[in-house]
Amino acid sequence: AAVTTRGVATIFDPDTGSVIGEERHELVGSFLETVLFSDDWILVSTGTAYAAIDRATGDELWRAEAFVGERELSHSRSVAAFVERGVVRIVDLEAWEDRVLEHGFGRIHGLAFSPDDQRLAVADDDRIAFIDLASDDLIQTVPAQNVSDLYWIDEAKVLIGTTDGVWATMSLDVDALILAAREGAARQLSDQECLTYRIDPCGSEEASG
Known about the structure:
Elements: E1 2-5, E2 8-12, E3 19-23, E4 34-37, E5 41-45, E6 49-54, E7 60-65, E8 73-75, E9 79-84, E10 87-92, E11 98-101, E12 110-113, E13 119-123, E14 127-132, E15 137-143, E16 147-154, E17 157-162, E18 167-171, H1 174-184, H2 191-197
Antiparallel strand pairs: 1-2, 2-3, 4-5, 5-6, 6-7, 8-9, 9-10, 10-11, 12-13, 13-14, 14-15, 16-17, 17-18
């Protein structure tokens, strides 16, 4: 685990509380927000840039600019994802090469990798988008308003937190989504809802009970 104070990242053993080491770098300055680290490198978000630093030499391995209000950073075992001007950038944590995912995202509020590291969930202003990381294709979208936090529970469920303080689990199973949409609809489903839940034909569904 790691904590940051005045530009210094202190790495410690969470079981014993003993300090393993401290990392300093001129890039960090006095404002360091996020730390990911391995035995070989440390990845930081400073509010103005994201950067990977070699822990042995202090050399900078990789860097990308960050912008005001962009603070989302997530990682799997092999890649990290962060936000840059409304797009998601994926960084290989071994080769330190990156690529951009552009799927018409709005302001991004959450990023989360699936447990098998094969998919990335991206929450923006009105939806959660699911990306296949092998192809970078958008494979599913689910309408979701006011998402502030996003976590993957298992392969078929995510946990979302909203700006209203509400937490809820969301199933990614298509049949379960269709059932929930039909049971909760007291009006004709919109074209977008039918597209999202793959309902064809798109007709009026009355709420039960």
